[in-house]
Amino acid sequence: VEVPYGNVARLFTSAREWFSFSETDVWCLFHSYAFDFSVWETWGALLHGGRLIVPDQEVTRSPEDFLRLLVREAVTVLCQTPSALYQLIAADQDLPSLGSELALRYIILGGEALDPARLSGWFVRHGEDAPVVANMYGITETTVHVTCQRLGHTDAVPDTPSVIGRGLADLSAYVLDPGLRLVPPSVVGELYVAGAGLARGYAGRAGLTAERFVADPFGPAGSRMYRTGDLVRWNGEGRLEFTGRADD
Question: Which GO MF terms are attached to this record (predicted)?
Fold first, then answer.
């Protein structure tokens, strides 16, 4: 996937609505550089003049050891897939005195669908602001992140859908039917993304690029949108809910 450097810079500018990163933040490179979440982790630290911790793989595979590292290094910004966070939450529950020493300001989730109910214990122990927990949705073809949703106690209840929120300021999120028509709220459709975060396409694969990056009928002439293959719907609060994959 060909992603211009400028796409990464505008990603952090667009995210300022939700986050106030600074040179005092300590980030953790939890993910492999082959996973696009690492772009957010690495450049989040470097662009803001912060510090980036690069843990050993053995540490990241042990929730207890990783919790100790977060405390020891005073990490303030942590990025996790939901499945990794569930394990960290269990370690935090087993070691409450250690968890109470965390310096986290933000936990940013992404990479897979979230079960919000599994965060209930975390919010009981840490509240909603220390740290802020945000669920973000995105794909490599749209430069890591597309939407954001801050989470709290009221989200962490059984049968709550995976809410991915609304789009970043310089992106447009369309929920469309197979005929590329906008669907009304509560109706499931496929998510298409347009705007400044779109990649150029797939290197050396013109056919696939044309298939996935299609003309945007809602934007200026010549603009494109990316067909994600993900199924979503708008809820009554104007937030997107993830419901699955179109190819499942």
Answer: phosphopantetheine binding
